[in-house]
Amino acid sequence: MNQHKNRSLARVRAFRASGQLFSFANIAAAAAFALIAIAATGPAARAQSVTATASAPQQQPGTVELEAYVVSASRTAQNVKLTPSSVTSISLSHMENLQIPDLRTALQTIPGVNVSETGGAAGSQSAIYIRGANRNQTLFLIDGIRMNAEDWTGNYANYLGAADLAGFDRVEVLRGPQSTLYGSAAMGGVVSLETARGRGSAHGSVSIEGGSFNSIGGTAAIAGRKPLMSGLSASPQSLSYSASLSASYTENDRDYNIFRQASGSTRIEYQLADSFTAGFTYRGLRSHYEEPGPVGDPTQAGDLNLNLDIATVYVDWSPIAAFDTRLTYGWVQNIYDWVNRDGSWPSNAHSTRNVIDWQNTWRAIEQIQVVAGVNAEWSHYDSGDAPASERLASAYINVVANPVKNLELTAGVRGDDYSTLDSHATWRAGAAYRIEQSKTTFRATYGTGFNAPAPQYAQGGGHYAPSPDLKPEKSKGWDIGVEQDLWNDRITLGATYFRNDFDNKFAWDYGSYPYPTYNIPDATTKGVETYIYARPVDNMGVQIAYTYLDTRDNNGACLPRMPRHVLAADVNYQFTKRLFAGVGFNWVGGRPVDSSWATSEMPSYSTVRLYGGYEVCSGLKLKLRLENLFNKKYDTVAGYPALPFGVFGGIEWKF
Questions:
Q1: Helical pair 19-47 and 2-17, crossing angle rounded to 10 deg
Q2: In Å, what is the CA distance from 57 to each residue of 115, 254, 393, 461?
Q3: Which residues of 470-506 are buried (b: 16+ CB within 10 A; e: fewer)?
Q4: How many CA atoms lie within 13 A of 590 on its CB side?
Q5: Judging by beta carbons within 10 Å of its beta carbon (0-12, 13-18, 19+), is residue 239 exposed, middle or buried?
Q6: Which residue, among 343, 338, 462, has the nearest Cα to 4 in the 3D structure?
Q7: Closest CA to 44 of 227, 213, 281, 189
Q8: CB neighbours (10 Å) of residue 459?
Q9: Which of these, 526, 494, 588, 598, lies nearest to 115 by C-alpha position?
Q10: Which of 538, 547, 620, 626 is nearest to 582 (CA)?
Q11: Which of 345, 392, 419, 504 fits a 20 to 30 Å CA distance from 453?
């Protein structure tokens, strides 16, 4: 035991000793990146100032940038006004304008979404709850590749807690059962993120921010698209590229709560005419987080080291105008290492997934589009004493029909075959109709979903006893909604009623060890999502998202961590050509008990944030934000207080 403890302590000391190397490596990488950016942009960058979305129309900073199309709803580009699915797509440049600092905060602005933070501070584990579905029932995608699995060695919680917005292009949140297109874990919905594509002339940005809690961070990014001439073809060719690098450090507010991270991303894409595209994406994250544990229980304090890598290689070919085929290979590696502060209870969770996805899109006639494909995955999970492997083969088909103008119908079916359980089928259907005269859209969907058990649950290993009769979690859900554009499209408002019924949820018998896994009876979630996006005057932007949620287990009790009310609002204004400012407001109310062993309900809370920017000269901007303005004391997970009032300032240069 002493030898084991000494080895664990040695690992902790070794990591702390490498902290200086970590910092120097960040500085060196940032300096090299800046030199590459200057060299890559060349005379074109010095000749004129362009924004990170140079090919897009120029907009006021406060304008709510709702994307004109979405991809996640049908796995192909689709008019957001006609999709039957409840989906929100917002560019990350808009989040940057609102000075939203990280991914988990960005997700909280979207209707139907609630995010909890186990730790309450930057770097702590975070979980997404969509329409009352549990965190393991939300699928998390980056560049089309599944990040998470039911197995705890392959979840997204640590990545979400550490990830910033650098290098992303947009975020799409698809709500309701989505297993027909995406398979396991998409029972509540899908969060899909895309690495930015290079567009327009060479351009880039450099920013640095610091403030409360001894926080400091910086980001550098370059992107562009360059025409090519080669002997491969006489057709037009191009090479697009984007790359980002970021690093940050904060001590948070509690003792023993330091967080530091370095991350980077890139996309390189070659295009031949409009018929052939080949590309590569990569995103990596390295982070270290000191977890102080819940208040009053220092025995749970420890050090968390996270290394995450995700890469894709893809080819997109259109042999004829009516047919596209896309072949993607993806690789995900998640390395999670934990050790208690005293060196005891080391925990190592490593997972690797290889993915091959072949998708085909056929526009049979002008009114019908068919998307069909096959997917194969090989996953390996290792938590030290319980290595496990899992294979998956699946096939799907989805049909989108437009029988008459402004009417869209969709229906699909999917089959998934896991090596650890029997085959499982899901299906989904939906309809949307837009009345052009009144600019009103009606939409409705019904679908089924499922969540496969971790291999350890069924086969045993680690903390779990074999449970061969375990069934996958299942759900069925439906929604119906309306969206209305008013006042020459200056105002968009909408409301959606939803209901989800869950069955065979996973539970564990903690009365014996190792823990048997079993299925429990059904649970129900239902509620209403509402939103308003408005531009009452040219210089003002307004967005409001409110969700009412009612969740019940089979005994009629509210589900843990599922608040009844969630409201997120923001108002911003361009006061002068150079001065921009705004205010954000969040309210979470009607919170049930935090977990099955808690005894009292969580109190409601509200927070206010102020932010502003001043453009000193073309491309150079000063920024200031005040978080938790009134210093509210609250926690999203019991025992882990959120950060108090904080002030942060920075400078950004776009060239």
A1: 30
A2: 32, 44, 42, 55
A3: bbbbbbbbbbbbebebeeeeeebebbbebbbebbbbb
A4: 13
A5: middle
A6: 343
A7: 227
A8: 18
A9: 588
A10: 626
A11: 345
Residues in the chain: 655
Nearest to 218 by CA among 193, 249, 174: 249
Q: Give the 3-state DSSP-derived string for 296-357, with helices as H, strands as E and coil as C.
A: CCHHHCEEEEEEEEEEEEEEEEEEECCEEEEEEEEEEEEEEEEEECCCCCCEEEEEEEEEEE
Rounded Cα gap, residues 571 and 597, in angstroms: 39
- Asked if residues 255 and 115 have their Cβ atoms less than 8 Å apart, the reply is no
Side chain identity, residue 421: L
Which pLDDT value is given to residue 347?
Answer: 86
CA angle 469, 472, 473 (to 5 degrees): 130
Cβ atoms of residues 440 and 482 within 8 Å: yes
d(CA 244, CA 252): 25
CA distances from 456 to 90, 390, 434, 507, 617 (A): 37, 10, 48, 14, 58
**For residue 251, what is the DSSP state?**
-
The answer to whether 89 and 78 are in contact (CB under 8 A) is no
> CA-CA distance, 203 to 52, in Å (whole number)?
7
* Residue matched to tokens 């102080």: 292
Q: Between the CA atoms of 553, 559, 560 and 564, what dihedral angle is there, to the nearest 10 degrees?
A: -160
Per-10-residue mean pLDDT of the chain, 655 residues long, equals 39 37 37 37 31 35 62 93 94 90 93 92 94 94 91 83 92 96 95 95 97 98 92 85 98 97 98 94 97 91 96 97 97 95 87 97 94 97 83 97 97 95 94 97 97 89 86 96 96 98 92 91 95 96 98 91 97 97 98 78 96 97 98 94 98 97
Token pair in block for residue 646: 């904080």
Residue type for position 547: T
Distance CA 301, CA 339 (A): 9
Q: Can you tell me the distance from the alpha carbon of 545 to that of 530, in angstroms, rounded to the nearest whole number?
A: 6
Cα 310 to the chain's mean position, in Å? 14
Separation between Cα atoms, residue 567 and residue 572, nearest integer Å: 17
Query: Which amino acid, 93?
Result: S
Question: Are the CB atoms for 153 and 71 separated by under 8 Å?
Answer: no
pLDDT computed for residue 463 by the predictor: 80
The bridge status of strand 145-146 relative to strand 113-118 is: unpaired
Contact 375, 394 (CB under 8 A): yes
List the beta strands (DSSP E) in 133-230.
138-142, 145-146, 168-175, 189-195, 203-211, 215-228
C-beta of residue 449 within 8 angstroms of C-beta of residue 427: no
